[in-house]
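Section 3.1: Structural characterization of target chains.
Under the original work plan, the team committed to producing a structural model for every single-chain target entering the pipeline before any wet-lab resources were allocated. The record below documents one such target. The sequence was received from the expression subgroup and is listed exactly as submitted; it comprises 124 residues.
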Amino acid sequence: QVQLVESGGGLAQPGGSLRLSCTASGFTFSSYAMSWSRQAPGKGLEWVSGIDSDCSDTYYADSLKGRLPISRDKAKNTLNLRMNNLAAEDTALYYCAKELEDRTLQGYYSISYWGSGTLVTVSS
């Protein structure tokens, strides 16, 4: 049974930082690309970042590149998202996702499994 469990969300001040983690189980973690997506209140789903199975390539939404670096730890079966210089518009539910293949397709259309999400709230 594939399981993706996000953690690390919470309340942060504008300009602050958070580190999100996703613990994966039930599949060969090293064989699949992984992604982060988010959904802000009243808005549609937005793809944030993806990383290939071999960690050789990472990809980011243009509006977030350089501010939310993605990484993975194959030994621990975890996917991470470092959130830096947070702003109010970053408030959203953040979802960890397993993609269908070893290379990310840079979108949520190729997702095979979703986590339940972790809430990030940025407010002063």
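The mean pLDDT is 93.
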